[in-house]
Design brief:
Length: 135
């Protein structure tokens, strides 16, 4: 915490974005692109979605693409909503911070994960979630 000019306390994070990017690479997840803006990080990854599966499962393909099996069928966007919800739940990112950039009506998708850092959600918090998600 540091003191702001108006006397209020505010959070200023010294975020090591490379730490998260390196963890993605170490786990074998291929990053299509990333963007750093202010104190936020956006990472775009490829996902292969399999809707209508008997159970929900997340795995990593040999090509660095994330494979996600979801129960919902691709009717009226239900599968995409379930996909975002599953990612959100497992990575600790709010569903509103996850965007399907390409492939909204396809099994092959590009998903953007928008990381916003706060005192409660630091780099270490996201790193633990990421490791747990893909181990």
């Amino acid at each position: 915490m540091i003191s702001a000019e108006n006397g209020e306390n505010c959070f200023v994070a010294k975020v090591n974005f490379q730490k998260i990017i390196s963890e993605f690479e170490r786990l074998g997840i291929k990053i299509k692109k990333h963007n750093i803006l202010d104190n936020n990080l956006s990472i775009c990854i490829e996902i292969w979605a399999k809707p209508g599966s008997k159970k929900e499962k997340i795995s990593l393909g040999e090509d660095g693409r994330v494979n996600i099996q979801i129960r919902s069928r691709p009717v009226d966007g239900a599968a995409n909503k379930s996909l975002v919800k599953l990612i959100s739940k497992n990575l600790g990112i709010a569903a509103s911070q996850i965007e399907i950039d390409k492939g909204g009506k396809s099994r092959q998708k590009q998903v953007v994960l928008n990381y916003f850092f706060t005192e409660a959600k630091s780099v270490d918090y996201y790193m633990k979630k990421l490791f747990k998600f893909f181990s």
